[in-house]
Each structure stands twice: as C-alpha cells, then as structure tokens.
Design goal:
With 442 residues, the protein is of the alpha/beta class. Helix content is 51%, strand content 10%. Helix 6 packs antiparallel against helix 7 and helix 12 crosses helix 14.
C-alpha cells in the first residue's frame, strides 16, 4: 500500500485520514505546531515536518487552509525538492481524486478504464468536503463534474446524486436560518425600542449585490464602488461562470458585512430561492450587448496561457484542448455556437426575474457605464438610497491583469466579426432588447 503522511493535525487532517483509511497506509501526521509533537491524533503519532527528510514514504498530503505557505515550506526539504509531485494539496479535488483512484494499485491509473473507481472517489471526496464544512469546494466539484455528464451516464447519475445531497443540505440551512430569523426579529424589535429611548447609533451600510454577465467590467465597477464608498469587497458564489452558484452561508455573511459584491450568479431556481430566503430586497444585474460579450469572452479564453485555469473557472463550457491553438475566427465561431446561447439564457433569465417585480432590481449595462460613468454610478447610488456626497473622488482601481486586457470599445464587433457571425448573434437577441438597453440595431 502507498505510504502517506498527512500535513495538518486537525479536523481537516482527520477527514482526509478517514477518506483514505482503508486504501493507503497513513504513517502519521506532521504539523508545524511544536506543541502537538509526541502527541497522537486518531491513534497516530504527530511528528515534526523534519521527519519528511528521512522517512520512507510515497506522498505527503497537505490538509490545511494554509496550503500555499506549507507547500513553499515543504519545497525546502531536500527529499521533496526533486519530487514535487509527491506533495498533494487536499484542497485540490482533482489531485485527491486521482490519489484515491491510484491507492492500492501502486501505478498511475487510466481513469477511462477505472470509471467505477473514479465515480466512487469523486463521491467520497465531495462528501468529505461537505462534512467538514468546505461547501465552496463541494459546489465547485459539482460544477466541474457537470461537463462530463453528457459523456457518461454514470457521471450523470453521480452528478444528480451530489446535487440532491447539496439541495438537502441547503434546505436544512434555509429552515435553520428562517427559524433563527424569527428569533433575530424579536431581538431586532427589542433593540429598536431601546434605541428610541437612547438614540440610534450609526448603522452599517446595506450590502450592494452586483451580479454581472461575464466580461462586462463587473470587477472594475465593484472595486470602484468599494474605493469610493469606503466599503469592503465580498462574494458569495463558487466563482464559476457560467454556472455561478450561490453559497447560502456566504450570502448570509455577506449581507451582514455592508460590502459590495461582484458575482456571475445564474438566475437559477436555487439561486433565486437563496436570495428569497435571505430576505434580499435590492440588487443590481449588469448586462452587456451579446455581440460584444461573445467577442470579449472569446478573446479572454483564447489568449489564456493556462488552459487548466480556463477549465477550472468555466467548466460548463467544455472547451476542447484544440481551441487554444486555433485562429481567432475559428474560436469566435465556436463561442457563437457554445457560449452565446448560455449568455442569452443568463440575460433573459435575469430579465424575466426583473419583469416579475419580486425584487427591487436595477438593470445596468456595460454600454451605459462606458458612455457616461458618472450617470451610471449615480443610478446605483440612488437605487440604494446612498447620498451622492458620500461617493468620494478617490482614485479608481487600475486596469491591469487578466481582468482588463482589452479596451472594451462598444462596437468593436463590427470590425472583428464577419457579417455572417453578426447575423447569427443578432438572430438570438430579442427585438425589444435593442431599445430597452440602448444597443445598436446594426
């Protein structure tokens, strides 16, 4: 059996040990906290990281939220300097899944010929994340799994099983939250009565929910609001697009912090249910002309030097390896076929919710931001009843990094797209959108 050390003598380390207990030989735990040395956890000894220099073992698994710092420290150990592949981060579901498949076989596993092992390992790893409260990783794993569903019926069944498990957990969270909300309402009424007697303290500002379609300057806009309102930046989704899923606990925490969000949350029934259960009243949804959105998304993915990063953040797109070696015209055709329908579903889905009137929702557009940013931000301030004089002239965030590789010209699509490509895109845009969102008709 493979010999494994687990770096992290805590709850996370125990969870990893339980996951692999029957499949590998866990030699012991190691930890940087010297107070734990010579003690035992779950019947196993806890050693100093120095033991990794001399002991005979196959892998060391990092089971800690400080994985990046630990990984750097482990690289200083001579035995591991020549074997960096022997360090596995338990936060990386793919690494953990492959180790689970390989355990007991002593050789690398071709997952295509060991699908049963792969299905079992995905379910086990996902369950471990859920059990120790790492719901973001659990949701991320479900999202990544979705892109394989059309290739394998077993994957589809597993995906549905994990989704049902997630739904059950979220339902319990909502039920618990609603019960807690009743108690908090009583406490709130008591505090209000008390404040009426002694005077009210300055209240924390209402959190600004800014939900944007991909590649529409959403991050820049949210950071600008943070800088100029003196508010913190926060998020409450799994950071996947498309397929953005709200993490209910994160949403509740965000709403209490008086922060500004930038997310790509889908207009799914689950997400709307979470907003409803959290008593969200106001929010902003940000659109972009689909012709520009498709062009920008194509460029964003096509120039990436790291396909793995693209697959991680955009798993539902199922982008093939060959995409990154093709010319831009081919890439744009691919995105018109595969991304445009998703983009239009995202826009029309949120528009339907807007039309329902359930939320006090403000729809903004990238085009309005580019045309007159002062009027754009003024609309947001008025929507949230924020005094205009509170919007300070602080320096805006710099346009840099992966977020702002392009200038965002409003009609660049006219030069970059062929007439046939423009026609294909416009065939999917509802006629009334042009006038409502001030998008050019030709």
């Amino acid at each position: 059996m493979l010999k494994i050390y687990i770096y992290g003598a805590g709850t996370y380390g125990q969870a990893v040990r339980n996951l692999l207990r029957e499949k590998v030989d866990i030699v012991g735990f190691t930890d940087s906290n010297s107070e734990k040395y010579n003690n035992r956890l779950d019947g196993l000894a806890i050693f100093s990281p120095n033991c990794l220099e001399a002991e005979d073992y196959d892998y060391v698994i990092i089971a800690s939220m400080y994985a990046l710092e630990i990984h750097k420290a482990l690289e200083s150990i001579k035995r591991l300097q020549q074997r960096p592949h022997k360090i596995i981060d338990a936060n990386d579901a793919i690494q953990l899944i492959l180790l689970y498949c390989m355990a007991g076989k002593q050789t690398a596993v071709d997952v295509s010929t060991h699908s049963c092992d792969l299905h079992a390992s995905i379910y086990s790893v996902a369950t471990m994340y859920k059990d120790i409260g790492q719901r973001n990783k659990y949701v991320q794993l479900i999202s990544n799994l979705a892109k394989f569903c059309h290739k394998d019926s077993a994957f589809f069944a597993l995906h549905q099983k994990l989704l049902q498990s997630q739904a059950n957990c979220e339902k319990k969270l909502i039920d618990d939250h609603l019960q807690q909300q009743s108690l908090e309402k009583l406490e709130y009424n008591r505090k209000k009565a008390h404040e009426a007697l002694i005077g009210n303290e300055q209240e924390r500002p209402e959190s600004i929910l800014f939900i944007a379609v991909g590649l529409a300057a959403g991050y820049f806009i949210a950071q600008s609001l943070c800088k100029r309102l003196g508010m913190h930046y926060g998020s409450f989704t799994n950071h996947v697009y498309p397929g953005g899923t709200i993490i209910f606990e994160a949403l509740l925490k965000f709403l209490k912090q008086g922060s500004v969000s930038h997310t790509h949350a889908d207009p799914s029934d689950n997400n709307i249910g979470f907003l409803r259960a959290a008593s969200v009243r106001r929010l902003i949804v940000h659109f972009r002309d689909p012709r520009s959105a498709v062009l920008s998304f194509t460029h964003h993915v096509g120039v990436s030097s790291d396909p793995a990063r693209v697959w991680y953040y955009h798993p539902l797109m199922n982008i093939p390896q060959t995409f990154f070696t093709q010319k831009f015209a081919w890439q744009l055709d691919y995105m018109i076929e595969h991304y445009l329908p998703i983009c239009m579903d995202w826009i029309s889905g949120w528009d339907t919710i807007y039309q329902s009137g359930e939320f006090d929702m403000l729809i903004t557009t990238f085009e309005a931001f580019k045309t007159n940013s002062t009027a754009f931000f003024t609309k947001i301030l008025k929507h949230y009843d924020i005094p205009l004089d509170r919007f300070s002239p602080a320096k805006l965030p710099e346009k840099q990094g992966d977020y702002y590789l392009r200038k965002g010209a409003l009609t660049e699509w006219r030069e970059r797209c062929t007439k046939e490509q423009i026609k294909k895109i416009m065939n999917q845009i509802p006629d009334d959108y042009y006038a409502r969102f001030n998008w050019p008709t030709e």
